[in-house]
Queue: 2 jobs
Job 1
Amino acid sequence: MNNLLTIAMPKGRIFTEAAELLRKAGFPLPPEFDDSRKLIIDVPEAQFRFILAKPMDVATYVEHGVADLGIAGKDVMLEEERDVYELLDLKISACYLAVAGLPNTKMNEVAPKVATKYPHVAAAYFRQQGEQVEIIKLNGSIELAPLIGLADRIVDIVSTGRTLVENGLVEYEVIEHITSRLIVNRVSYRVKDERITEIVEKLSEVIKQKGELA
Ligand SMILES: Nc1ncnc2c1ncn2[C@@H]1O[C@H](COP(=O)(O)OP(=O)(O)OP(=O)(O)O)[C@@H](O)[C@H]1O
Ligand SMILES: O=P(O)(O)OC[C@H]1O[C@H](OP(=O)(O)OP(=O)(O)O)[C@H](O)[C@@H]1O
């Protein structure tokens, strides 16, 4: 039986913390893992394959079954609503999604605009608040939007808060606290349950130990 497990890893800021966690849980990650432009890294002796994906795409690979497991921010899960199971809160890459804007301003009463990289999350949030807004999708530098008059508010990730402060913006509401999650393809979870359960147990132990030390 094919016992290979494919794991989709997010490139970028989650990567280092995720790799550290996997190593502590006993994953045999080769040194090239940390400093390579390769997008597929095989560890045949342990029957693992790692694919390196854009963070926002990890759940897509897992949903389609080309990756069995993946590591994705909760923000990605909320935005993408992919049909996958969330197995574990890895408690890494903590940040939160917030509504922000220029200080002491109200949203425009007629057709208020909200700029964001998270159009579904933002639309759902303002719908829930009973506010009709126009969502403007941006791909980065979201904080620019209120500064330059493109939007009344933004919905974006806040981590240290430095980007907001340095651009003279303030937070109005926290929408959701975010950490990275271990996710699994629905079929893989059934077919490869033994290996996956073992991984979840090892990772849970490391997360627990980290929590006790903190
Ligand atoms: N300060 C932060 N800003 C953005 N994402 C953060 C932050 N801190 C933790 N994260 C987590 O990291 C993930 C995004 O990682 P990263 O910024 O590397 O990817 P990206 O948004 O695709 O970046 P880029 O488009 O700039 O390459 C988010 O899904 C979120 O869960
Ligand atoms: O609270 P802070 O620690 O300042 O972090 C928050 C900032 O980091 C992210 O941007 P990123 O660096 O990914 O750049 P981009 O989305 O503008 O490309 C996020 O979109 C915020 O702008």
Job 2
Amino acid sequence: MGLGLDSSAYLLEAQRYLPDSAFRLALLAFINIPVIAVVLNVLRQLLLPRNPSSPPEVFHLIPFVGSAPGYGNDPIAFLESCRKKHGDVFTFTLLGRKMTVALGSAGNNFVLGGKVAYLSAEDAYTHLTTPVFGKDVVYDCPNEKLMEQKKFIKFGLSMDNMRAYVGMIENEVSRFLRKEPSFRIFQMNDINEWGQFDVLKVTQEITILTASRTLQGKEVRANMDATFAQLFTDLDGGFTPLNFMFPNLPLESYRKRDRAQKKMAEFYINIVKARKEGTSMNDEPDMISALMGQTYRNGTQLPDHEIAHIMIALLMAGQHTSSATAAWALLHLADKPDVAEELYQEQIEQFSNPDGSLRLPTYEELKSLPILDSVIRETLRMHPPIHSIIRYVRDDFVVPGTLSAPSKDSQYVVPKGHYVLASPAVSQVDKMLWLQSEEWIPSRWTDPEGQAQKAFKQYSDENGEKIDYGFGAVSKGTESPYQPFGAGRHRCIGEQFAYLQLGIVISTVVRSIEMRIPGGVPPPNYHVCFDRLTSIRNTNPSVDHDYTPKAASDDHISPSEV
Ligand code: HEM
């Protein structure tokens, strides 16, 4: 009995203390888990022998997070500093993903020219893009289907359409400049006073207005009111680093993204239906009409929901890329008024009417303006909007010997499940390839003996090897050091449209105002879109920068709108 009592007392004791001490232990361990994880992570990197077939790994303290802060802060500076330590090929950890970077021309070729069996864009991007674009298009379908969809899109970017778009874009830009208060004030006063405008806000508005008027079509332009703008903003909120990490989270931004996707898709589907029923207001060429009636190789018609989702994809693909490029171009022109003046003189020489006013260029004329072309080309060299191009590795992939192989007997292998990353943004400012690489010098593109011309000609569409991936022959160009529009099967098909849009936007602005930026061009900020103010001066219409906007027949602006 005594024994029983003793043992039960012991048991009671044990029951009383065990949970408490276990809790303390658990708490202690819990508090220390991050510390232990960091220590183990550091020891692993410092002490474990490196697999000779693995590319060198970028040192990082915190597991999972890896080099996310460094890469996120300034990707180009991060990649360049890693390159100094490790060479052209190295691996870094980005929020749980292993990214193997391949830099330089050979690196661009390795990633952009990789075979689909090994390197997949859809596996890299789909979790980010499908919730925004919608199902069955772009990266939510096999690669061959995307290639067909790109061919369909090219119908909407035909020469005839481009010719028609010139006037529409010019009309939108001139109308915006007349309507936008920061420009209008000076025009109304008709004096050479300096004012300011928020360059990114302006280029974002102009980009969406011009894209909606042209590619997107009349119905979208007519609905480009607060509702559509809000839908766009909510959808755009689905393109953040958080979305890249987690496709779905119970957060308001995700719910907004999903609601906006549904509403926007419905909006486009209704346009398609109205057009099919003949009740549409549209009578102009646009992308929707080009997509309607397209048929896949297997005989299936492009369904309405796919047309809608492709339209959303195009809206998103062209918006940030073109608006950021236009903003950088205007900032540099404000910083280098001599180049702005050359650009303006080019317009005067080419498009002066007998009465001194300036006429609209044709599409063909726009394509043969060397100064305008070099301004866009140089802006895209220094500020390509897409700095990293990523592919998912579907099967172990050997890095070719030309890319810093450790020895002739062993080669780096990027294992299945990793990602590879090319950065044309790095090769485009590589000091070994470009003279004064960090300087914005458009004339490097017009100097016939200049190194930019030579490098570009070597890989350009006219001279390079041509390949048809299913959407028309394009130059292979995967090894070019200049690739603002990418290369290979995922190459941009919006390039011609972007050049047209940027060309008209920049030339219309230069015809209308002078710009200065007192503090110089700001450095890139990869966290937020920059919103620096640029000083502008409306040029007195009675003096030399005379520009009479084309008579705008569809100019609906009334004083009440201003
Ligand atoms: C300055 C403007 C633009 C720049 C710098 C740009 C850049 C790029 C780049 C670098 C890629 C390749 C992405 C990759 O390989 O992962 C790409 C692909 C693409 N872009 Fe653009 N883009 C611009 C404008 C546009 C416009 C206006 C459109 C639509 C009209 C567009 C539609 C596309 C499409 C459909 C793809 C193909 C995606 C694929 O095949 O995976 N882009 N763009």
